Amino acid sequence: MKVLGISAPWSGSGKTTVSMMLASLLNDSVTFKIGPDFIDSGLLRAISNKGENIDRYLEGNSYKRLICSYEKYEYGIFEGVMGLYDSGLDFDNSTYYYFKNLRIPHILVIDVSKMAESAYRIYKGYKNKYTAGVILNNFYGEKHFNIVKRDFEKYNVKIFGAVPRDESIKINERHLGLYTFMENNNIENIKRSAEKYLNKEIMEVFSDIECREREKEKVSINKNKKIYVAMDKAFNFYYEYNLNLLSKLGKIEYFSPLNDDILEKPDFIYLGGGYPELYIEDLSRNGRTKESIIEAYNNNVPVYGECGGLMYMMDNIDGKKMLGIFDGSVKSRVKLTLNYTELIPSKDILFFKKGMRIFGHEFHYSLIDTEEIPLMKNLRGNGIKDGMDGLNSKNGFGMYTHIHFFRYRKFLENFFRKY
After folding, report:
1. Cβ partners under 8 Å of residue 304, min gap 6
2. Phi-psi region of 34 (alpha: psi -120 to 50; beta: other; left: phi over 0)
3. How far, in Å, are 12, 136, 191, 198, 406 from residue 168 at the CA level?
4. pLDDT digits over 339-397, tens only?
5. Residue 193 pLDDT
């Protein structure tokens, strides 16, 4: 697999848009989002059909095996997180860490909308031995572009793309980041703009990645088990690997709480993250979905919720009735929480074992008021309350923390094998 990285000096420079453009030019490609952001990886997946996240905090030090599980694809595109050298942790988890350790050449996307000659100085300050050149994004016209590019050409820096300010390819943002792949109306415009704005010489920068260690192929455990996964505009924050693994442990059935779908004889229910707070009227009134989930829960079917899924499992969101598996209320859009997390369960819960270390991240804009006692101690991160995360009632479990199943695949396999 030939690989190329897309990075930037800071967030909001256009990395995702450029990565989507590049993926649209390649028929046989897989996209990788560095870091925990499942919104960006979902947008990339809308173009390439394969969009994975790479994060050694979430996945452990064998994360390269996850990359190499996609080596059958001809091309791999790696989109960075935040600015090139940003990490914000007590260890290096920056985009540059991965480019350096995996020896991935990369292109720097610079948003030039509020600068001119300064763009080259920014590039000069950020470049490293793996930097192949730039893509100049968001210029206002030919005169502006000519001023910006002058020093790049003078010092023989390769310009692999020039993207003008264009509202038709803009990806709008809200309180948790970009609009999701299920909401974005500009994906087709981004595809069409790729050949117009990107230099085809970019293909010469791709470099082979070496794969020595490979993940063993998983075998199906019980394809008769029906694993229901919520998937619509309210619930779509999922890692590609999580869904791939579940598809090998059973048969995935997607359902939409917004469409009031009925779950027919589920064996496991996965309520992922998303934006339930934007759709509380529909979620509250759609009784068939709620009734079928509660019926399954009362029949001892495991119900697992992450973040938005946890919110849906509470009694109400902003006063609107939800599932009521857990007592308590959710107040939405009150406080942004964004952290990596490290948790220790106080007892065995679903596929988690008492005392094990769970590494994940929390990313929400809500607070939960509950008298229920969370069962996972936060060594890192905030959790639900008092430095604790994870509510459990019988076979129902929900937490603010999102996890990547790669690190816990053996635990999930054992869980599905036994129950």
Report:
1. 268, 269, 270, 271, 350, 397, 398
2. beta
3. 17, 17, 11, 16, 37
4. 999 999 999 999 999 999 999 999 999 999 999 999 999 999 999 999 999 999 999 99
5. 92
Backbone torsions φ then ψ of 265, nearest 5 degrees: 50, 60
What residue has token string 């994870």?
A: 390
Active-site residues, by number, are: 307
**CA proximity to 381, closest of 352, 399, 401, 407:** 401
Is residue 22 a contact partner of residue 163, using CB atoms and an 8 Å limit?
Answer: no
The Cα-based distances of 209 to 3, 91, 105, 280 in angstroms read 7, 24, 10, 45
For residue 298, the model assigns a pLDDT of: 98
Contact by Cβ (8 Å): 120, 93: no
Contact present, 86 and 35 (Cβ < 8 Å): no
Cα 403 from Cα 360, distance rounded (Å): 5
Q: Which of 408, 235, 253 is nearest to 308 (CA)?
A: 235
Q: Which residues pair with 111 in a beta bridge?
A: 137
Closest CA to 25 of 157, 178, 168, 196: 196
Tell me the per-residue pLDDT of 167-213, one tens digit each, with 9 for 90 and over: 899 887 776 677 788 786 788 899 999 999 999 999 999 999 988 87
